[in-house]
Design goal:
The protein is mainly alpha-helical. The chain has 4 helices and 2 strands; from the N terminus they run ααββαα. It has helices spanning 14-17, 22-33, 54-63, 70-88; strands at residues 36-38, 47-49. A two-stranded antiparallel ribbon has the order 1-2.
């Protein structure tokens, strides 16, 4: 653990996260945590973020074999929520 008490912060989109099913919340967190890599050889900073590769793709497919298109569905939820939010914040048209 770092001297400040935190090694990583995981930021989640509250609007989206509160509108998806519990199983998708688990998938989102699990997916993001898979980007963390701890390099025990690095004395200065062993905590790193990784870039997804083909191995990660294969693991994701296996972990989500019951619903391999979950990320697309979550993205559609996000786009719908933000479109609705944008529409509700438009100023009303006036002819003054």
């Amino acid at each position: 653990m770092s001297q400040t008490g935190y090694d990583f912060f995981l930021y989640l989109d509250k609007m989206v996260f509160t509108h998806v099913e519990k199983k998708d919340k688990v998938r989102i967190i699990r997916h993001q945590l898979r980007h963390i890599y701890i390099d025990p050889e690095s004395v200065k900073n062993p905590y790193k973020l990784t870039v997804p590769d083909i191995r990660d793709f294969s693991i994701e497919m296996t972990l989500n074999k019951d619903d391999q298109r979950w990320a697309e569905r979550v993205m559609e939820v996000a786009m719908s929520l933000y479109e609705t939010d944008k529409e509700s914040n438009k100023p009303a048209f006036s002819m003054s």
